């Protein structure tokens, strides 16, 4: 009997606890939220897709580049420019777009790197003399980065690709005409082999 | 009714005032000559010969003076340069002595430069006679950074690395430079204390580290990096710390420079498929285009130390030096050349001129458009000048 009373007390306590917890769900207790109740109800488009409102709180992801290798990633590696001599990519005036006619050269470099997985490549961007010095240094780097992006798309790991720009400081032809300029607007590939 | 007619009268009066004002403004515009429109001040020179006379003629020509006969000159410069320099300047218009000076010590060249600065000071102007420049001297595949007097004399090699270098930039008020060097087989930015010869790599991120520009207080360096896979404008503390990316675009940015108050970084960019000069707050923020009157492919801006003008390079078939008000507006194309750098007094520009396969440095007095070449380091192609401030 005594036990029963104790059990009853326990039961009462449990009921009270539930009641107290339950209070939080009471419809009269309203939790205020920040912000005024203005604007139209969210428009649910066809198929139940919610059209984002004009003042969306969600910002789309910013486009980003693929981070360059840290400097000195391939320090002390043997350099061999001859391997890719015939794969030099030529660019149009003031452009860093890899022309369709040059894509096969990038593919050849990618194929070589796929077959020689321990090796890496340095991509050297160069310009003709028609442009100012530092503008061309940036343009040369952009050309090298464009070739790097193509190699990455073809499955080469970004960590195996270094870039450098020489601007107009490393011409292969010194003439001041289109014949020379077209040869100087280029991206060279240099094979990098790990020290033995 | 009465009120209405009064109002109408008032409007008419205001309108007339407006016309009057704009007419005055027009006269002002005609009277104030823009860059390149000023006439040189005429001087005559007597008694001086040799190096002293050469220095005087050079220094004063690139600061807006021209030499003529004593009958036509405003100022008569007379003196002797046997041993030390002694000079007297007479103002022929009001028949008074403007300046009488005697110098001793140092070289005759130094004395002549000092005299030119004293003469300008007597005219309430600041001279450039004792200023320094840094530049790139290329010899075949390799190049070195050189320091010289503003007129190219007393040139000294600051680097002897036998590597490619680019874009030297002075630290304001200090004997120190930042520049790009390929010495470590990579395009890195070096800091170089010229007094001690101590050097350190300032920026050696992945990709290319290019075009350093030191802030007017020397505390920050703007630069172009490709470390994040795109070519963008960055700024860091002078010791390389606290690197901040100021642009984020797959397009290229190049050749940054600072506004003299250190608030803005101006650079060459591509905005909506058009090449333009842009500026961005040095602490970050939205880009603003600086209108340059539609001149093609503006690059290499340099903001004058007095804050008024931005000099830059325009690309036609050849390159032209142009200046535009710092807030943007009508740009004036001045002379053939590229990569201008302002003198500390915001009057003269030093720039690069292509001459066949070689480059020479040249000085331009902006108000008069008078130009003179700087002697070249023998056997080399000189470019990318930076005027010490």
CATH superfamily of the largest domain in chain B: TolB, C-terminal domain
Shape of chain B: globular
Radius of gyration of chain B over alpha carbons?
Answer: 24 Å
What is the helical fraction of chain A, as a range of percent? 25-40%
Number of strands of chain B: 29
Helix/strand/pairing category of chain A: alpha+beta
User: Which whole number gives the mean pLDDT of chain B?
Assistant: 91
The CATH topology assignment of the largest domain in chain B is: Neuraminidase
Write the layout of secondary structure elements.
The complex is a heterodimer of chains A (196) and B (389).
Chain A: H1 2-23, E1 78-80, E2 89-90, H2 103-115, E3 120-126, H3 133-153, E4 161-167, H4 178-184, E5 186-193
Parallel strand pairs in A: 3-4
Antiparallel strand pairs in A: 1-5, 2-5, 3-5
Chain B: H1 2-31, E1 41-46, H2 50-61, E2 65-67, E3 75-80, E4 86-91, E5 96-102, H3 108-122, E6 132-139, E7 142-149, E8 156-157, E9 165-170, E10 176-181, E11 188-193, E12 199-203, E13 209-214, E14 220-225, E15 232-237, E16 244-245, E17 254-258, E18 264-271, E19 274-281, E20 288-290, E21 299-303, E22 309-315, E23 319-325, E24 332-336, E25 338-342, E26 348-355, E27 358-365, E28 370-373, E29 381-387
Parallel strand pairs in B: 1-2, 1-3
Antiparallel strand pairs in B: 3-4, 4-5, 6-7, 6-29, 7-8, 9-10, 10-11, 11-12, 13-14, 14-15, 15-16, 17-18, 18-19, 19-20, 21-22, 22-23, 23-24, 25-26, 26-27, 27-28
Would you kindly provide a brief summary of this structure?
The complex is a heterodimer of chains A (196) and B (389). Chain A is an alpha+beta fold and 196 residues long.
């Amino acid at each position: 009997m005594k036990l029963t009373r104790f059990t009853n007390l326990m039961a009462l306590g449990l009921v009270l606890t539930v009641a107290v917890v339950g209070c939080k769900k009471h419809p009269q207790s309203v939790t205020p939220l920040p912000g005024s109740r203005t604007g139209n109800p969210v428009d649910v488009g066809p198929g139940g897709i919610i059209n984002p409102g004009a003042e969306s709180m969600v910002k789309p992801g910013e486009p980003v580049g693929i981070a360059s290798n840290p400097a000195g990633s391939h320090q002390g590696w043997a350099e061999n420019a001859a391997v890719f001599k015939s794969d030099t990519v030529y660019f149009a005036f003031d452009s860093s777009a890899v022309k369709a006619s040059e894509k096969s050269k990038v593919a050849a470099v990618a194929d070589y790197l796929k077959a020689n997985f321990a090796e890496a490549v340095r991509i050297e961007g160069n310009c003709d003399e028609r442009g100012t010095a530092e503008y061309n240094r940036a343009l040369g780097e952009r050309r090298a980065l464009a070739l790097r992006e193509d190699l990455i798309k073809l499955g080469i790991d970004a960590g195996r690709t270094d870039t450098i720009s020489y601007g107009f400081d490393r011409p292969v032809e010194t003439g001041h005409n289109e014949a020379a300029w077209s040869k100087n607007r280029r991206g060279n590939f240099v094979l990098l082999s790990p020290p033995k | 009714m009465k009120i209405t007619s009064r109002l109408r009268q008032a409007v008419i009066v205001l309108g007339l005032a407006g016309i009057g004002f704009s007419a005055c403004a027009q006269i002002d515009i005609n009277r104030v000559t823009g860059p390149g429109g000023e006439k040189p001040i005429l001087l005559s020179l007597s008694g001086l010969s040799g190096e002293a006379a050469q220095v005087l003629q050079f220094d004063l020509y690139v600061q807006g003076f021209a030499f003529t006969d004593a009958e036509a000159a405003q100022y008569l410069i007379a003196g002797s340069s046997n041993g030390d320099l002694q000079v007297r300047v007479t103002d022929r218009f009001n028949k008074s002595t403007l300046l009488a000076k005697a110098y001793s010590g140092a070289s005759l060249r130094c004395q002549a430069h000092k005299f030119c600065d004293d003469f300008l000071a007597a005219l309430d102007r600041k001279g450039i006679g004792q200023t320094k420049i840094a530049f790139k001297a290329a010899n075949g595949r390799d190049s070195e950074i050189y320091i010289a007097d503003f007129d190219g004399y007393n040139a000294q090699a600051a680097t002897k690395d036998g590597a490619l270098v680019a874009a030297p930039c002075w630290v304001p008020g200090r004997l120190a430079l930042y520049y790009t060097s390929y010495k470590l087989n990579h395009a890195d930015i070096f800091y170089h204390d010229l007094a001690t010869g101590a050097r350190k790599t300032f920026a050696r991120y992945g990709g290319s580290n290019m075009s350093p520009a030191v802030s007017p207080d020397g505390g920050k360096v703007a630069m172009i990096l490709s470390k994040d896979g795109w070519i963008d404008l960055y700024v860091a503390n002078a010791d390389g710390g606290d690197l901040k990316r100021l642009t984020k675009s797959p397009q290229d940015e190049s050749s940054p420079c600072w506004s003299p108050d250190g608030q803005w970084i101006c650079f060459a960019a591509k905005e909506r498929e058009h090449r333009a000069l842009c500026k961005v707050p040095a602490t970050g923020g939205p880009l603003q285009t600086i209108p340059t009157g539609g001149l093609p492919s503006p690059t290499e801006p340099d903001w004058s130390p007095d804050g008024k003008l931005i000099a830059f390079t325009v690309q036609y078939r050849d390159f032209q030096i142009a200046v535009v008000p710092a807030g943007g507006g009508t740009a004036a194309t001045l002379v053939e050349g590229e990569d201008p750098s302002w003198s500390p007094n915001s009057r003269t520009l030093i720039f690069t001129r292509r001459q066949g396969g070689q480059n020479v440095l040249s000085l331009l007095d902006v108000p008069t458009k008078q130009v003179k070449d700087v002697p070249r380091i023998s056997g080399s192609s000189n470019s990318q000048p930076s005027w010490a401030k």
